[in-house]
Amino acid sequence: MAAERYELNMSMKCVKYMIFVISVTFAVVAAMLLSMAIAIGNLFDDFKSFIDSHFFVPPNLLIAIGIILLIIALFGCVGALKESTVMINIYGTLLLSVFILQLAAAITAFVLRGQVELMVRQKIFNSMAEYKNIPGYYNSIDTLQNMLECCGVNHYSDWANYLESTDVSMIEYPETCCSVAPENGQCPPWQYGCYKRLSWIISQGSVLIATGATAVAFVQILGAICAFMLARAIRRTKTLRATRRWHLQQSLGIMTKPLDQQYIGMEKSHEANVDPDKYLPTSPSVN
């Protein structure tokens, strides 16, 4: 029994510290995941005029998952150190629940990635068509061209369909298309269109979200398995300790039933018809 108890204690300690290490690792990974999701969300926000609202769902969901993972990691560390079966079981259940959320975020990001090219192309063309009419589009398309150092959708010549030039031999385009400072109202434009560059940024952001969520999700499975193993080891060890304590109490007679009669020493009889010649233990000695 001593060998079994030693084996259980060692097993519980190994799994306990494994849970503690995994929980700390989750906290670090959750912080990295949170920072990545915030960065991607801010990047998408810079180009929100060219991105549909449902593209913000994966980064926002990943931000929520990162915060939840930080709380779960703290919960797991406390449960492992206190060897609480209830807390460890809740820890494992929460990890499995967040695993489902992360898979949903990864799948959503992969699905939306296939819609990026059509969305970006259409959004840029719409912004160019409304360039002179709506100030909002004016600011957004100029910001896009200035940040990505691009011009038009595929080429600067795309602006010929939206801006009229006084000189038929020249193509008019915004100043944000200029690769250098304009001189005498003229400047060489950027040779790259904005379509490919913006599509690449959004696609890579979606891939990062999906890859990060998937990688952390499968590590969570390991954490949940270790959590349930630890809960089982704690339960078995507590049962073994209780059994050994009961056997010890039995051996010391603490749990035995007390006697109904107590030993009573021989005393002088108080009966009236006592034989005076009969010797009793209380009679005086005859020397």
UniProtKB/TrEMBL annotation:
Pfam families: Tetraspanin. The keyword Transmembrane applies. It is found in: Membrane. One of its GO terms (cellular component) is plasma membrane. Keywords: Membrane, Transmembrane, Transmembrane helix. InterPro entries: Tetraspanin/Peripherin, Tetraspanin_animals, Tetraspanin_EC2_sf. The chain crosses the membrane at residues 20-41, 61-81, 88-112, 207-231. It is a multi-pass membrane protein. Belongs to the tetraspanin (TM4SF) family. This is Tetraspanin. It comes from Anopheles aquasalis (Malaria mosquito).
